Amino acid sequence: MKVLITGFEPFGGEAVNPSEEVVKALPDSIGDREIVKQILPTVFEKGSKTLIAALEKHQPDLLLCVGQAGGRSGITPERVAINLRDASIPDNEGNEPSDEPIIPQGEAAYFSTLPIKEMVKAVKDLALPATVSNTAGTFVCNEVMYTALHYAKTCCPHLKAGFVHIPYTESQVRNKPESTPFFKEEDILRAMIAMIRVL
Ligand code: PCA
Fold this sequence. Notes:
Aminopeptidase, 8 strands, single chain, binds pyroglutamic acid
C-alpha cells in the first residue's frame, strides 16, 4: 500500500513549519506501507496544483496532508473541508482571497475519508493530546484538503484522503506568550507514525 504524505512550507513569518519537518523525518516505510512525501507551497492554487501533480505521479492508495495550526494544543485530524477561500493573512505570494469558492461548481463541503476517530485514539494511546477538529479553517490547508477530496471523488474514488493539523513545536514558541501550546518534535513524529499505522 502506498501512502502520500504532504507538509507545507513555513508561512506567516515562521522560520519553520512543523508539518514540513515531520514529513521529512518520516521513514520511507511504516509496516507494509510505502511512504512517499511531498512538500507543498503555502500559496493558494499553487499548493493544490502541486498536490494534484504528486497524486498523479505517485498514484497512492492513501493521502494524508499535514499542516500547522498554531495555537492548537493537540493533534487534530480534520473532519471536513469547505468550498471557501477566505484568508486573514497573506499567503507566501501575497494572495489574500476573500469569500470566494475554491471550485465554483464543486460541492459545498467534503468529509474526510480517513478514520479520524481511530487516528485520535492512536495518538491518545501514546498519552498525547488529540481531538477531532470540525474546521480546517479557510486558508491554504482547507483548500488543499478540499481539492484532494474533490479529486478523489471525481477522479479516483478508491483514494482515501484527509488532513491533520499539528501544533507549533518548541522552537516556534520561544518568542510567543508563555501559555502558547507546543509539541516536542519527537512527539509529533510518534503521533504521525501511530496515525499512519491505523490508516
Ligand atoms: N497551515 C496553514 C497553511 C499551511 C499550514 O501549515 C493552514 O492551516 O491553512
